[in-house]
Amino acid sequence: MNAADNNFQEIPRARGRPNFENLLAVLRCENPSRPTLFEFFLNERLYRRLTGHPDSTPINPFLVAEAFRRAGYDYVTFLVPGMRFPQRPHASLASHSLNDGTMITDRASFEAYPWPDPDAADYDMIEALGRALPTGMKIIAYGPGGVLENAVAIVGFENLCCMLADNPELATDVFEAIGARWLRFYERCLEYPAIGAIIGNDDWGFKTQPMLSPADLRRHVFPWHRKMVSAAHAAGRPAILHSCGNAAEIMEGIIEDLKYDAKHSYEDAIQPVEEAYEQYGARIAVLGGLDVDFLIRSSPQAVYKRAAAMLDRADRRGGYALGTGNSVPAYVPDEHYFAMIRAALDRR
Which residues of the chain have pLDDT under 70? Predict the structure, then answer.
């Protein structure tokens, strides 16, 4: 179907039933049986619009799962409630400095920090959500932030950099305290058959380089991700890395050391997904990638055309699922999102 033939204001509907095996094929760098979609999360407006609920309807995991199903996904992403690393509230919810909210500055504040108990999270919700899913659909569990993300949130980025240089023992203890609890959270999630895969969501980079030196990442962050991926593989599940920023210096480690099955989050200003697929697609699955800025600024016809071209690029080669470069925030026009997923749904 030509892009000009589409009414992108209309909500596209999925054809056929969910089948998580298609995403598993992508994660094995194989060709799925039909074009497959991947998204980390959408937004509240889309969740309500896709399911036909009014604006006053509270968002809950069951509504989100129904929205994912109706949009043509083979899974729903889910964060188990009750596990988070406490942070001080930021002055602005829209934007804040990476130096805001410092809670650990020295050994005394480290000892006083209210470290969470990962075993106290509400894992029963996995079973409840799993029972509500249609046959063929699975849950992809993601974490309460990542190892580096939480370290930055509770120490502050500049303070963390100084701590690594001036008090490396304390910095090591901070990463250990976060990492051990973060890993235990995923180990508990993997106990449930409804979990089809896990996402290690941990932003590691700025636009031009990693946030910490590759040596510091390998010393303090990568060991926990390696253990998490290993736990997933031991349980027979794939592991997806969602990490924003420039990963060029650490991509070999992501593939060969950490052994992630897939990488998510791409930005045209860093490396367009088309280039990333050509460079890495035979060794690690590439998920999403249509730049969010491109989605916002381009016409629905241009979005459809690029999405279709990316699907054509991966056709018969495999290892790719269509989606955005990061997520679908509320400032992405609905018709632009619909244009993107319609490029996949039209081929089913």
Answer: 1-5, 90-96, 101
Residues 6+ apart with CB under 8 A from 60: none
Give the containing element (helix H, strand E) for 262: strand 262-264
Structure tokens at 29: 């760098």
Q: Which helix (H) or strand (E) holds 241?
A: strand 239-242
The residue whose two tokens read 């990442």 is 217
Distance of CA 118 to the CA centre of its chain: 20
Q: In this structure, which CATH number among 3.20.20.210, 1.10.530.10, 3.30.460.80, 3.40.50.2300 belongs to the domain 3-345? A: 3.20.20.210
Q: Check: CB of residue 20 under 8 Å from CB of residue 74.
A: yes
Cβ contact 208:135 at 8 Å = no
3-state secondary structure of 76: strand
Angle at CA of residue 53, ends 50 and 55, nearest 5°? 105
Residues 293-320 pLDDT 10s: 999 999 999 999 999 999 999 999 999 9
